[in-house]
Amino acid sequence: xxxxxxxxxxxxxxxxxxxxxxxxxAGLTCHLCSIGEEMxxxxxxxxxxxxxxxxxxxINEYDGVIxxxxxxxxxxxxxxxxxxxxxxxxxxxxxxxxxxxAAPIVLEKAxxxxxxxxxxYPSFKEEFKNSKYVEDKVIQQxxxxxxxGPATALDFAYKILENFITTKDIDNLKRDMLFKGL
Length: 182
What we know:
Elements: E1 2-7, H1 13-25, E2 29-34, E3 39-41, E4 47-49, E5 52-53, E6 64-67, H2 73-78, H3 81-92, E7 96-100, H4 104-109, E8 117-118, E9 132-133, E10 138-141, E11 144-147, H5 153-161, H6 167-176
Parallel strand pairs: 1-2, 1-6, 2-5, 6-7, 7-11, 8-9
Antiparallel strand pairs: 3-4, 10-11
Helix pairs in contact: 1-5
């Protein structure tokens, strides 16, 4: 399995890096993909070196796409036509699309969450005009996964994994990471 995490300047570091870490620990290929320069500055001034650039990828090689939140990262993703194209293509193909915190606003602009249950960082609740807003930590409806924010990053990553590896393997990873049983 091969997943893509899209990074735009101002991304939320916890959401991007926690997700990448968990997916890689589970043995999935997970590329940090910049929509701009190779080095991307996060919302809290942490610089991250991307693995690939959006202009050099072959999107058919990927099984899912993940959007971290953060500001202005989410708005930068929302305003990029390449990001919107990837979301629409992955949705048409039934591939996993996951967005956390502010990033579900990108899904709204891509018109792929109409009539679906979604969640996000609470201050973005009013952005979802054609969706049913819920306050769950993480929700998946069909191929779309959304989550609330930085504190839900591990839950978000494990939910993504549910679509790619066995429950037993996820439980073992949670145990190894001390997520359960403390």
